[in-house]
Amino acid sequence: MSGGDGNSALGHKAFDRSPSHFRDRITADGRDGWPVAAGRYRLVASRACPWASRAVISRRLLGLEDALSLAVTDPIQDDRSWRFTLDPGGRDPVLGIRYLSEAYDRRETGYPGGVSVPAVVDVPSGQLVTNDYQRLTLDLATEWTALHRDGAPDLYPARHRDEIDAVMAEVYEDVNNGVYRAGFAHEQKKYEEACAGVFRRLELLAGRLAGRRYLVGDTITEADIRLFTTLVRFDAVYHGHFKCNRLKLTEQPVLWAYARDLYQTPGFGDTVDFDHIKRHYYQVHTGINPTRIVPLGPDLAGWLTPHHREELGGRPFGDGTPPGPVRAAEEVAVAGRP
Fold first, then answer.
1. Which terminus of the chain, N or C, has fewer Cβ atoms within 10 Å?
2. Considering only CA atoms, which of 152, 129, 130 is closest in space to residue 141?
3. Residue 225 and residue 232 in contact, taking contact as beta carbons nearer than 8 Å
4. Is 3 in contact with 18 (CB distance < 8 Å)?
5. Of the listed 49, 244, 258, 282, which one is catalytic?
6. In the chain, what is the straight-line distance between the N-terminal and C-terminal CA atoms, in Å?
7. pTM for this one?
8. Rounded distance, CA 102 to CA 307, Å?
């Protein structure tokens, strides 16, 4: 995963997340050599990975399905990392490759780093464009506007960007990355520091969200997407697998209601695949879970229960509208639905 187990130094006593190596940007003016163009690029994502899930959610909220095709990898990696074994013949039908590493090799032969998702691949050349998970979704929101659907929300509104950036930085350090620093810690002190940081920040976020529906302003922004992708995985994997077990998400009333509100919002829960999430974490992280046994729980029925967050007001999509139905080829099983 980008910054997850795909390109990090897990053997060290402290978890070390490597920065993205391929940081070209796809922009409206094409200043990095990659202009925005409908159908030219393919987003490669794992539904297991929180960093990739950001891009999947953003793509759906913005209505970029026609402009940016989606390749979903197998949640279980082998020694060549992300693979397309979910597709007929074990090849991505658009790129024609078996492993994402092939697109990396076409960009830079012998690249020494890990193969991570999300990744955007240039379809005509078959080479990787970017694996910059921090920048990718911001560019989808701001550089791809000519290809957004009618009614697409503004996920990175200019008037709130400083506040959004500040909130996202705190969420990244203590929550998004904090759970990994706890889970992969090789020293008791490092684990305790990371775990304490996770719950300290969650408490602060709960205080922020107690009287407001969303993190910044009165609409969904990039900040909410980034917090959601960690919260939705919390009880399924981070609580037990990563030992972030002071409290479950379901034991934190404000955050649990906030997470359910987003999950029930079109574009969020309909992109989440708990089966992929659980199988990836428990079967790939053999240093933490050597038996590779995937737990049966938790019970997912609560995700579709009433949250009452609408009583706080807010306009989920601002002046825009919800995205339409999920495309048949991209549907996933929704937790709690019979």
1. C
2. 152
3. no
4. yes
5. 49
6. 31
7. 0.94
8. 44
Structure tokens at 259: 């997470």
**8 Å CB contact between 91 and 98:** yes
The span from the CA of 37 to the CA of 103, in Å, is: 19
Tokens 């737990």: give the residue: 295
pLDDT at 336: 66
| DSSP codes joined into one string, 245-289 | -SS-GGG-HHHHHHHHHHHTSTTSGGG--HHHHHHHHHHH-TTT-
Using one digit for the tens of pLDDT, what is the confidence trace for 34-77?
999 999 999 999 999 999 999 999 999 999 999 999 999 999 99
Active site residue 263: no
Look up residue 91 and give its amino acid.
R
Closest CA to 232 of 45, 58, 47, 3: 47
Question: What span, in angstroms and rounded, lies between the C-alpha atoms of 329 and 88?
Answer: 14
Lowest mean pLDDT among 112-121, 157-166, 173-182, 290-299: 112-121
Contact in structure between 76 and 279 (CB atoms under 8 Å):
yes
Strand partners, 35: 27
Cα–Cα distance, 175 to 50 (Å, whole number): 12
- Residue with the two structure tokens 């925005």: 36
Buried b (16+ CB within 10 A) or exposed e, 75-103: bbbeeebbbbeebeeeebebbebbbbbbb
The predicted model gives 298-319 an average pLDDT of: 97
Q: Is 195 a catalytic residue?
A: no
Tokens standing for 209?
């969200």
Query: Can you give the pLDDT at residue 6?
Result: 43
The pairing of beta strand 41-45 with beta strand 69-72: parallel
Catalytic hit among 41, 99, 180, 281: 180
The Cβ of residue 156 has, within 10 Å, a number of other Cβ atoms equal to: 19
Half-sphere exposure of 6 (CA within 13 A, CB side): 32
